[in-house]
Amino acid sequence: MEVKEPDIFVTKSNGEVVPFSPEKIRQSLRKSGATSEMIENIIEELYKQVYPNMPTRIIYKIAYKLLKKASRPAAGRYRLKQAIFELGPSGFPFEQYIAALFRQAGYTVTTNTLMTGHCITHEVDIYAVKNKGAFIIECKYHQLQGTHCDVKIPLYVQSRFRDIAWKMKEGNIGNGQDYRGWLITNTRITPDGIQYGVCMGLNMLSWDYPTGKGLKDVIDRSGLYPVTCLSTLSRHEKYMLLEQGVVLCRSLLEKPDLLSAANIRGARLEAAMMEVQHLCEHILKVEWV
Q: Between β-strands 133-140 and 178-185, what pairing exists: parallel, antiparallel or unpaired?
């Protein structure tokens, strides 16, 4: 039976008030692998609990808890955005994770590299090379939702990139490689930031930019989910794995002993490995770059 959609407004993390959109929730649940029956049961329950100006993060939490009861692997995929926020607090795990996405796309990658520019020396988060392409990548990690990269960030990133590329070209370093600058963030880039980046030829990747090819799309297509997606582990256990340099669920699939090293044993280890196997069942080498 179709439920009548209430005329109600809710509040996003940035304070914007928008109409409650069950269709957006349906789409995200569908992408997570939830069945049609699961989706409609969750939507029906949300209608019972939603109220005017309800924060969207609360709506998300309710949907996640309901989905977790029905399917842990689907719940892990559904909480992807929050899982990326948990690749902190330093942001270094986020850099490691982005480096893994480039490796999966066939790039040779180094992280935290000192590179000499024409004017000064810079610490580069990620340097990725494949064939004649060389990428100088700056990662901007934010721990709080609603925090965006305004135009100052691409201005800063482009300035650093131009200084390094200038030095590389004047010294003929890299045998004529095509150098490109990148800004990658786990949140969003403001419209003027995108306008500037596009104008200057700066590659940019945010949670939902470029449209249909944003970070969330790259992750879903590649199947490279972070360990912070795992609903079977506590936040403390996930941080223990991150401290060991374990950022990918795939790493746990290849080396289950990493869970034991984080004091995850017995029935909980079996449950975690089952979830890992489901999350890693569609890993692909995606040419997303």
A: parallel
Q: How many residues does the chain have?
A: 289
Domain that holds residue 51: 9-78
| CB proximity list for 263: less than 8 A, separation 6 or greater | 237, 240
Cα dihedral 217/202/96/32 (nearest 10): -10
DSSP reduced 3-state for 147:
coil
Check: CB of residue 177 under 8 Å from CB of residue 133: yes
**Domain membership flag for residue 123:** yes
Q: What is the mean pLDDT of residues 203-230?
A: 94
Cα separation, 248 vs 103, in Å, equals 12
- Please report whether residue 126 resides in a domain: yes
150 and 276 in one domain? Answer: yes
- Contact status, residue 187 vs residue 142, Cβ threshold 8 Å: yes
- DSSP string covering 174-223: TSS-EEEEEEEESSEE-HHHHHHHHHHT-EEE-SS-STTSSHHHHHHHHT
Q: What percent of the chain has a predicted confidence (pLDDT) above 70?
A: 95
**Alpha-carbon gap, residue 134 to 210, rounded angstroms:** 20
Our count of domains for the chain comes to 2
pTM: 0.87
Q: In angstroms, how far is CA 265 from the centroid of its own chain?
A: 28
Check if the beta carbon of residue 83 is closer than 8 Å to that of residue 229. Answer: yes
Same domain, 60 and 171: no
Please name the residues in contact with 2: beta carbons below 8 A apart, sequence gap of 6 or more. none
- Decide: 233 and 227 in contact? Cβ < 8 Å: yes
Q: Which position has the token pair 């721990």?
A: 143
